[in-house]
Design a protein that fits this description.
Distance between the termini: 38 Å
Helix content: 25-40%
Radius of gyration: 17 Å
CATH topology: Rossmann fold
Shape: globular
Largest sheet: 8 strands, mixed
CATH superfamily: NAD(P)-binding Rossmann-like Domain
Strand order of the largest sheet: 3-2-1-4-5-6-7-8
Order of helices and strands: HHHEHEHEHEHEEHHHEE
CATH class: Alpha Beta
């Protein structure tokens, strides 16, 4: 680390659990973020400012006025700009040394096959089951830890799926691919603005813990948040031995 980095990340370095070695692991790490909206905004901001040295951000969409109520990485003067590029510009204004690859692409199987093997941790900040299952399948195949979040209305959930652990489930263990799930969009249901910040911040924290090798990750646990009551519920989630995604891995 150079002098600027030692000063910039000094509050991390002061933490015994992180220190210089842990901060260096963050600087050497590569995080792949799928989705640059409500969840992707706090995830990218906290990972970038905390010192993750390389970020790849994928989102096919552009900034819209209705996004600005909750997608805090974007600005009014960027309406119409690709969301991934908007986040890249926000982060570089905070730390010009960051290495950010902004992809205006949908995270389909082909793109994930290219990007997931390069990452140390993958964060699913998407808003649909098709993408979530594609991301999960790629992470299981390439043995990459996945930090998954979701938020709609006043309800959120977050979990870590890390099949490098023999007893840890993948996303498909909880939400089997091919099952008939009802897709609910923010355009029809709405979303409480701070909810995505809360869930995204937890995702970022879990990713930093995984990379730095500190604490106990959320693998095997699903956190559910009812923001009306501000009440968290934890569910233990064992691996499904018959899971069509991870059982044979």
């Amino acid at each position: 680390m150079n002098d600027d980095q030692l000063l910039r990340f000094s509050r991390h370095i002061l933490l015994d659990d992180i220190g210089i070695e842990g901060q260096q692991r963050l600087l050497d790490a590569h995080a792949l973020i799928i989705g640059a909206g409500g969840l992707g905004s706090p995830v990218a901001l906290y990972l970038g400012t905390a010192g993750i040295g390389r970020l790849t951000i994928c989102d096919h969409d552009t900034v819209d006025l209705t996004n600005l109520q909750r997608q805090i990485a974007h600005r009014n003067d960027r309406i119409g700009m690709p969301k991934a590029e908007s986040i890249r510009q926000t982060l570089l204004a905070i730390d010009p040394a960051l290495n950010i690859d902004a992809r205006q692409q949908r995270a389909d199987a082909a793109l994930l096959e290219e990007l997931v093997p390069q990452a140390d941790v993958v964060l699913d900040c998407s808003d649909n089951f098709r993408t979530r299952h594609a991301v999960n399948a790629a992470c299981v195949k390439h043995r990459k830890p996945l930090v998954s979040g979701a938020a709609i209305g006043f309800d959120g959930q977050v979990a870590v799926y890390d099949t490098r652990q023999a007893d840890a489930p993948c996303y498909g263990c909880l939400f089997p691919p091919g099952a008939d799930y009802e897709e609910v969009a923010c355009a029809t249901m709405g979303v409480f603005a701070p909810l995505v910040g809360i869930i995204g911040s937890v995702q970022a924290a879990e990713a930093l813990k995984l990379v730095a090798g500190i604490g106990q990750p959320l693998a095997g646990r699903l956190l559910l948040l009812d923001a009306r009551a501000m009440e968290w519920t934890e569910m233990r989630t064992p691996r499904n031995p018959a899971c069509p995604v991870c059982a044979a891995r």
